[in-house]
Design brief:
The protein has helices at about 40-50, 70-75, 90-100, 110-120, 135-145, 165-180, 215-220, 235-240, 265-275, 290-300; strands at about 5-10, 15-25, 30-35, 55-60, 65, 75-80, 150-155, 185-190, 200-205, 205-210, 225-230, 245-250, 255-260, 285. By secondary structure, it is of the alpha/beta class. The protein has two domains: about 5-220, P-loop containing nucleotide triphosphate hydrolases (Rossmann fold); about 225-300, Alpha-Beta Plaits, CATH 3.30.70.
C-alpha cells in the first residue's frame, strides 16, 4: 500500500479533530477525502506529511513510518496545502528553481513531469507569484510539489476558491499525473469532485462515515429521491420542511431533493399539498442519489 493509516486520533486541547481513522490508499490510486470545513482533513494531511504528531495510531507513507522515517517521507512526497504558501515576492521561475534546489534536482531533470502544467504558466514565468490569478497560483503550486518527482502527492483542498473552468482543468491534470504512476490523496469539500476519484472516504467531525468507490457509495442510499421545483424556491423549501411526511429536504441547484417517510409515497399527494400552499408550476420527478445525498444521510445517522 502507498498509504496506510491505522487508528489515528488527534485532539487539540478538548477539541477532537480525528477519531480512530483507518484506511489504505493503493499505489497509483487517486483517493479522495471528502468532507466540509472542520471535518479533520487538513489535520490528517499534516500528520501524514510529518508536520504534526498523532495522539494515537500509526501511519506509513511509501512504506515509511510517519514518525520514525520522517526525513525519508519528506524526500518522497509532494504536498500542496490548501492555502497558497509559495514565496509571493519571487517570480514563477524563481519559485520553481528554489524548490528544485531544495530537493537537489533541477527543472530540466523532471521537466517531463510538469511540462503539461508548466506550459500554461510559462508566459508568466517572470511575474511575481503574488500577482498571479487563483488558477495560475494553483498550477504553480502543483509544479513546485511535483518538481522532485514524488511517489505520493498530497493535495489539500486544491480547488477551493478557484473558478469552475480552472477546477475542471486541474482535475484533468491530476488524471494525467495518475497515468505516470503517482499516488494521490486529495481532500475537497466539493461533493461533485468525489466522482472523479477512484475511491473516496467521507469524513465528518473527525470520523470516517464510509469508504468506497463513488459509484458504490451512492448505491447505498436507502430511499427514493425526488427532484421538486416550483415558482418560489424559498416558499417551496419552507413548505416541504413543514410537510408532516418529509424525511429529508435539501436544496440542490434549481431543485430541492426530497425524500418521504412513507414506503407507499405518491407524488400526487405532495403536489396537492403544495398547491394548497399557493405554489405554482410544481414538478416532482424521481432522480438518482448523489455522493452529497449519501453524505447528508450518513451525517444524520
Amino acid at each position: 500500500m502507498s498509504i496506510s493509516i491505522k487508528n489515528i486520533s488527534k485532539s487539540f486541547n478538548k477539541t477532537l479533530a480525528l477519531k480512530d481513522i483507518s484506511f489504505e490508499v493503493k499505489e497509483g490510486e487517486l483517493f479522495g477525502l471528502i468532507g466540509p470545513d472542520g471535518a479533520g482533513k487538513t489535520t490528517l494531511f499534516r500528520i501524514l506529511t510529518t508536520l504534526l504528531f498523532a495522539d494515537e495510531g500509526k501511519a506509513t507513507v511509501a512504506s515509511f513510518d510517519v514518525v520514525k522515517d520522517y526525513k525519508n517521507i519528506r524526500n518522497c512526497v509532494g504536498y500542496m496545502p490548501g492555502k497558497f504558501s509559495l514565496y509571493q515576492d519571487l517570480t514563477v521561475e524563481e519559485n520553481l528553481e528554489f524548490f528544485a534546489t531544495i530537493f537537489g534536482t533541477s527543472i530540466e531533470k523532471n521537466y517531463d513531469l510538469i511540462k503539461d502544467i508548466y506550459i500554461q504558466i510559462e508566459p508568466f514565468k517572470n511575474r511575481r507569484a503574488g500577482k498571479l490569478s487563483g488558477g495560475m497560483k494553483q498550477k504553480l503550486a502543483l509544479c513546485c510539489a511535483l518538481i522532485h518527482k514524488p511517489k505520493v502527492l498530497f493535495l489539500d483542498e486544491p480547488t477551493t476558491g478557484v473558478d469552475p473552468v480552472s477546477r475542471k482543468e486541474f482535475w484533468e491534470m491530476l488524471k494525467r499525473l495518475q497515468q505516470k504512476g503517482i499516488t494521490m490523496l486529495v481532500s475537497t469539500p466539493y461533493m461533485d469532485e468525489a466522482a472523479l476519484c477512484d475511491r473516496i472516504a467521507l469524513i465528518q467531525n473527525g470520523k470516517i462515515l464510509e469508504i468506497e468507490t463513488p459509484q458504490e457509495i451512492v448505491k447505498h442510499y436507502p430511499k427514493t429521491i425526488y427532484n421538486v421545483c416550483a415558482n418560489n424556491m424559498y416558499k417551496l423549501i419552507e413548505n416541504l420542511n413543514k410537510y408532516e411526511h418529509n424525511y429529508s429536504v435539501y436544496p440542490f441547484g434549481e431543485f430541492v431533493h426530497y425524500t418521504d417517510q412513507r414506503t407507499d409515497f405518491n407524488p400526487t399527494d405532495l403536489k396537492q399539498y403544495l398547491e394548497a400552499e399557493n405554489l405554482e408550476n410544481i414538478q416532482i420527478n424521481k432522480t438518482e442519489a448523489t455522493v452529497e445525498d449519501t453524505f447528508m444521510e450518513l451525517s444524520k445517522q
